[in-house]
Each structure stands twice: as structure tokens, then as C-alpha cells.
Amino acid sequence: MHKAAEETTLEAVQAARGRIAGRVRRTPLAPSATLSRELGAEVYLKLEILQKTGSFKVRGAFHRMLPLCERGADRVVAVSGGNHAQAVAYAAGELGMKARVLMPETTPANYVVATRGYGAEVVLTPSIAAAFAAAHVAEAEGWVLVHPFDDAEVIAGQGTLGLEIVEDLPGVTDVVVSIGGGGMMAGVAAAVKGLRPATRLWGVETEGADAMAQALAAGHPVTLPAITSIARTLGAPAVSERTLAAARRWLEEVAVVSDQEAVEALLFLLERAKVLTEPAASCTLAAARRWAAAGRWSRATKLVLVLCGGNVSAADVCGWRTAARG
After folding, report:
1. Where is the domain boundary, 130, 149, 168?
2. In a 10 Å sphere around its CB, with 0-12 CB exposed, 13-18 middle and 19+ buried, how is residue 258 labelled?
3. Helix boundaries (H) for the chain
4. Residue 2: inside a domain, yes or no?
5. Weakest mean pLDDT among 121-130, 176-185, 290-299
6. CA distance 35 to 46
7. pLDDT tens across 158-212, in order?
8. Confidence band for 324, pLDDT divided at 50, 70 and 90
9. 326 pLDDT tier (thresholds 50, 70, 90)
10. Which long-range contacts (CB under 8 A, 24 or more apart) does 127-135 make?
11. Span 20-26, mean pLDDT?
12. Are 80 and 102 part of one and the same domain?
């Protein structure tokens, strides 16, 4: 595996947990007998779908925004077409701050409604590139940018879920995480590898939202011309040098699965595990199935699938089900 300077330390993640205590939920780590039989390993589901706002993102949002609030900042701006938007909006409301969230016009209505429901000002832009450009304008006007993944405090906050995994399953051997911009992956790796260096970390993306796989192949961040996957919350147009370095250092492999595989896994999790996830989360099961077929797991494997978010609409699920089974 490649070596690179560690951007986030175990100590930083542990300190982050203390700072955000009482602001976020400790989510369950649930065993799955069904998936254990299928994958030939001891399988657990990290249910970040039960986190406040429905995803892990509030961990990083609070850790970034709490010190801003303490320093007197009262306005934050964020760019997101999904879960980061809701997390920043929610954290801002809890901290008494104003939030402006810039979202592409293609953002599903349920994300827009939820973000506005948490009290944020939502501004729709023609594209994600236009959203980032508008964010830089807002910065010049005095708003503080809360980046979705390329920020040390955000990464440390996201990593707190990794501390919970190791505490709840001290013998964990393998953790599978999905990758958008790579912030959660970097934080979880710092926590898990810091506490259990022998634990293997595996990354997953979907076709059409595979910025990390392309960056690893190219040796540098690559900007995707468009996000075409239904896994919208994996839709970072590019990873950062920081998160690319973390992937090189910590990941065994990055799998890129199809939308079809992610939807099949989503429906399986809904029907058999009774949990509703986004394709950005269910893709971890899709990849774990591939790796099971390749012989990567054994009966001694204690495997955790991080189900990072569950913010999907009923209409989306019904549409995906029809497409998958039609």
C-alpha cells in the first residue's frame, strides 16, 4: 500500500468526539445473520441511517461549526446536493447561526425541502461548479465555508463513527465504507487503523460517481465531467489531495459497482434487514458481495458495512424497484 503523510490522527478524532458529545447520536452496530450466511463472514451493519438528519454528516458539521460559533461567526455557507446540506442546516439551527446552502438545480425535491425545513436559505444553481463559484462569492462577503469533505475538522468529526465501531466490535477485521469526496473514509481510517492497525479498510463507489477510483488510477485528483450515478450523495466532482492521500495510505482496494448492483443491495437490505438506505450506502453490500465471491472473507472475518445514510424518497425507491425488477 502507498504511504503518505497522515492528515488526520486518532487523537484528533478522539478529541472531536468530546467536542460533539451530546450533539450527535451514537448509532447502533447491528449483527445480520442473513448477511453473515450469504457472505460467509460475521457481518455487522453500522446504522448511520439512524443519525440525526439521516446520515453521518452531522458529525463533521458540528465539529467544524462549534469552534466557529465560539469565535463569534454567525454565517456559514455550504455546497451540497444531499446530506451535507441537511447536516449544515441542522447544525446551524442548533447553534443559532445562519446557513446558506447552494444546491444544483438537479437536487431531488426531498433534499431541498428537508434543508429548508432545518431553517437554511437554499439557493439553486445550474451546476455543482456554479454552486462552488457562488460559495466563493459568499466567502468574500463574510460567510464561512463548511466544505463537505476537504477539511481537517470535518474529517475528524466523521471519524468518530469509526471509534464507535471499534468499541462495539473490538475484534473487527474489515470495514467497508462508501466514498464520495472521501472525508468519511479518511476519518474512519484514522480512527480504526489508529486503534486496530491490522483491520482492513475497503472503499466503494458507483459507476458515474467514481472520482476516487479515477484519481487513484491517474495519480492525482480528476474532475468528473458529470455525475451520472443515482447515488447522488456520492456525487463529489473530484476528491482532494488530502483524501486521495488517505485512500492511498489506508485502503486495500476501491470497488466501483453499478447502480443496478447498488439498487439490488438496497432492496435486499430493506426487505431482509428492515433498513432503508441510499444507494450511496447500499453499495457497500454490493461490493462486499463481489469481494465474498473473490474469497476475501472467511468465517473468522468480522465485517462491518457502514450504512452512511438513508435520505431517499418513496418515489425514488419505487422507481428503482421497478427498474431493477422490470
Report:
1. 149
2. middle
3. 10-20, 33-39, 57-70, 83-95, 109-117, 128-140, 152-158, 160-168, 183-195, 211-218, 241-250, 259-268, 279-293, 314-325
4. no
5. 121-130
6. 13
7. 999 999 999 999 999 999 999 999 999 999 999 999 999 999 999 999 999 999 9
8. low
9. low
10. 128/79, 128/81, 128/104, 128/227, 128/235, 128/237, 129/237, 130/104, 131/79, 131/102, 131/103, 131/104, 132/79, 132/102, 134/102, 135/77, 135/78, 135/79, 135/102
11. 97
12. yes
| Distances in whole angstroms, Cα of residue 142 to Cα of each of 60, 100, 135, 183, 312 | 21, 12, 11, 25, 33
Return the closest-CA partner of residue 8 out of 158, 212, 133.
Answer: 158
Burial 206-236 (b: 16+ CB within 10 A, else e): bbbbbbbbbbbeeeebbebeebebbbbbbbb
> Residue 185's domain is classified under what CATH number?
3.40.50.1100
Rounded to 5 degrees, φ, ψ at 137 are -65, -45
Q: Give me the half-sphere count of Cα atoms (radius 13 Å) on the Cβ side of residue 103.
A: 30
Extract the C-alpha cell encoding 8: 488526520
Contact between 282 and 248 under an 8 Å Cβ cutoff? The reply is no
User: Which band of pLDDT confidence, cut at 50, 70 and 90, is reported for residue 244?
Assistant: very high
Q: How many CB atoms lie within 10 A of CB 198?
A: 7
Dihedral sign computed on CA atoms, order 21, 73, 87, 185: negative
Per-residue cell: 154: 470535518
Q: Are residues 63 and 106 in the same domain?
A: yes
**In which band, very low, low, confident or very high, does the pLDDT at 325 lie, cut at 50, 70 and 90?**
low
Handedness of CA 188, 190, 194, 197 (dihedral sign): positive
Could you give the CA distance from residue 131 to residue 289 in angstroms, rounded to a whole number?
36
Rounded Cα distance between 156 and 212, Å, is: 19
201 and 313 inside one domain: yes
